[in-house]
Design brief:
Elements lengths: L1 H27 L4 H27 L7 H4 L8 H11 L1 H19 L1 H36 L3 E4 L16 H15 L1 H6 L7 E5 L6 H12 L2 E6 L10 H20 L1 E7 L2 H4 L22 H12 L6 H13 L9 E8 L7 H4 L6 E4 L5 H12 L11 H9 L6 H18 L7 H13 L10 H21 L4 E6 L9 E5 L9 H22 L7 H16 L13 H8 L2 H20 L1 H14 L1 E3 H5 L15
């Protein structure tokens, strides 16, 4: 009964206000229907709250001082307190109901006012429809512009890879396994008090497998992988880049809820995360403010999103609030997003991006060493149809030795793309060592483009020039493998010598740089020794000499170490020094003396080149005497 009395009292107060006060207010407002209506609305709102206070006093129920008291989970003391709680929580709906009642009763007393209200309502509706269409159109344009290429791989996808597919870096795989376990066992890690990392940055030269590694981490953990290129965040118009970042992180969270975790990968992150200091463009707007400038908005949004990865989303906050109101336990987050980035220019990234809490961990991904290349080569050989000889240890070791410093991408391209193509168009059914060697040659030196009608003297010049290099390398670097010698044009080189060290080189004695300078001089010295005059060509030899002179000076070979200055002006100043000139002349003389002592070998090798144009290791060594390492096909 109490509930009914309270409801009827509040409704009666509002209705009576509209019926009784409208004629008087209409006259007070100077017969203005619009002004009278506004006054009635204001009066109705005031009257509603006065009625609430009156009924509250009448029933002796004190009004709570704070909303939190009404929103608490305790049981209401009586029916009136329950009704009062409802109206307190829904003031907006109550006021709207009062306005509707007043407008209905107003239309009964003044048809003109009623027609005017209908006209105003129709105008407002047209305006709202027009604005809605404009907003929807604008939103559609921005949505279309915000779309960019993304890669999504979910568990069970045929494109999914695991750490077993990542060859040649066992220590790196071992380190990444830790993060795989964290993605799998989030709850156990959190129960121990641990905080999951927000970001992991992979840095290293191009082609070292950073993107593949990120995919393998997600595949090994059995979670989703979602990737975008850093340049994909950039937009023509201001704000598009920020929208793309918001969309990217939103989709990552959706995949994480679905699969328990998600690896979000930003490739070439330096395209969007470059340092904002000293650019002079960050945040600027050109062309009247319509265009996006340098894209610092995307970087700022990435920083914000990475800071808020562990914060609850709107849906989670809503669920938490419902749980609090109903007295149930608050839901725990059982998913996580880990952002991985890749770059070969880590030094250019903004410092704010690299601080703990964003990219917490940085991992260097370098080209594989000798053992790693051996595993990678075996792995890719298992993916193609090759002859049995390629399974021999000697053939594989020859490929390992021929690929120092190669990245996994280069090895993969040479074996699965270049070698298979060459074998197919040569009519072979299986890939052989020669096909892979040819693919490696094309990759390193360019496509073979022989000059069909080369003038004989120029062809002879090339043969003696390259023979001089080969003889000098044979005696100055006795342990190096003379892999290939040719006078067939490849790209810009009319001919070349390929000699490979037997082991990986991470540091070397300065004397090796001196020997390299002599080997570079040997081509011109041999040509001059045969023709008795200097010729043009071989500009790459002099570039090599200048680079090594700069390195020797920087490492203190000529005294106090000098600042490294590899640009042409810096090297020119270095070469102007008299002591450097004298030293270089001494190296040229030493090279000339060495070739004179072995001139017969230079002649024999040059004639063999003129006959065959290309000589491989065994064909080269049969024309050379044994050196200090006992390598050579001829006895003294």
């Amino acid at each position: 009964m109490t509930r009914l009395v309270v409801v009827l009292a509040i409704l009666a107060a509002n209705i009576a206000l509209g019926i009784l006060l409208y004629p008087s207010i209409y006259q007070i407002s100077g017969n203005s229907s619009l002004l009278a209506m506004i006054m009635l609305v204001i009066g109705a709102v005031v009257a509603f709250f006065l009625a609430n206070l009156f009924v509250t006093w009448l029933f002796g129920v004190s009004r709570p001082k704070k909303k939190s008291a009404l929103r608490s989970g305790r049981t209401p003391k009586n029916d009136f307190e329950e009704i009062l709680r409802y109206f307190t929580w829904n003031k907006g709906k109550t006021v709207l109901l009062a306005i509707v009642v007043l407008l209905v009763y107003t239309s009964r007393y003044d048809v003109e006012t009623y027609n005017r209200l209908i006209s105003i309502g129709a105008t407002l509706l047209q305006f709202l429809l027009f604005m809605s269409f404009a907003i929807i159109q604008f939103a559609a344009i921005f949505w279309f512009m915000s779309q960019t290429k993304k890669t999504k791989i979910e568990p069970g996808d045929p494109k999914e890879v695991t750490l077993k597919d990542y060859w040649g870096q066992p220590r790196l795989v071992e380190a990444m396994t830790q993060y795989v376990k964290l993605l799998r066992g989030i709850e156990e890690f959190q129960e121990m008090g641990g905080q999951l990392i927000n970001g992991l940055l992979l840095k290293g030269p191009p082609g070292t497998g950073k993107t593949f590694l990120a995919k393998a981490v997600a595949g090994e953990a059995g979670v989703a992988f979602f990737a975008i290129e850093g340049s994909g965040f950039r937009g023509m118009f201001l704000g598009v880049d920020t929208l793309r970042v918001i969309e990217f992180f939103s989709k990552m969270r959706g995949l994480a809820r679905k699969w328990g975790a998600c690896v979000g990968f930003i490739d070439e992150i330096d395209a969007v995360g470059a340092s904002r200091g000293g650019t002079g463009q960050g945040g600027q707007m050109g062309m009247g403010g319509m265009f996006g400038g340098s894209g610092s908005g995307a970087l700022t949004r990435i920083l914000y999103e990475m800071d808020g990865i562990d914060e609850f989303s709107r849906v989670e906050r809503f669920k938490t609030r419902i749980a609090e109101m109903s007295g149930f336990a608050q839901p725990k987050r059982n998913w996580h997003v880990m952002v991985m980035g890749a770059t070969n220019r880590a030094q250019d990234l903004d410092a704010a991006l690299l601080r703990p809490g964003r990219f917490d961990v940085q991992i260097q991904v370098d080209p594989p060493d000798r053992m790693g290349r051996r595993e990678i080569i075996k792995g890719y050989l298992g993916k193609i149809r090759c002859d049995k000889a390629l399974g021999d240890t000697a053939e594989i070791e020859a490929l390992v030795e021929a690929t120092p410093g190669y990245t996994p991408a280069q090895i993969m391209s040479a074996i699965t793309k270049g070698a298979v193509r060459i074998a197919l168009f040569q009519g072979a059914k299986e890939v052989s060592y020669q096909h892979i060697d040819k693919a490696l040659e094309e990759q390193r030196f360019g496509l073979e483009q022989p000059i069909e009608e080369l003038e004989p003297r120029q062809r002879e010049l090339l043969a003696y020039h390259e023979s001089g290099h080969a003889v000098a390398a044979h005696y100055l670097h006795p342990t190096h493998r003379l892999n290939r010698l040719t006078i067939i044009r490849h790209s810009e080189a009319l001919g070349y010598l390929e000699h490979l060290p037997p082991t990986e080189i991470y540091a070397l004695p300065l004397e090796d740089l001196v020997r390299d300078i002599r080997i570079s001089y040997a081509g011109h010295v041999a040509a001059r020794g045969h023709f008795k005059k200097n010729w043009t060509g071989g500009s790459g030899d002099f570039q090599n000499i200048h680079q090594r002179i700069n390195a020797l000076a920087a490492h203190g070979y000529f005294g106090i170490p000098l600042p490294s200055n590899p640009n042409p002006d810096g090297i020119a100043k270095l070469l102007e020094k008299e002591d450097i000139k004298t030293w270089l002349k001494a190296q040229e003389d030493a090279t000339e003396k060495l070739l004179q002592e072995h001139w017969e070998e230079v002649e024999n090798l040059a004639q063999a080149l003129l006959a065959k144009e290309r000589l491989m290791n065994k064909d080269i060594l049969i024309h050379l005497k044994k050196n200090e390492a006992g390598v050579g096909g001829r006895d003294e």
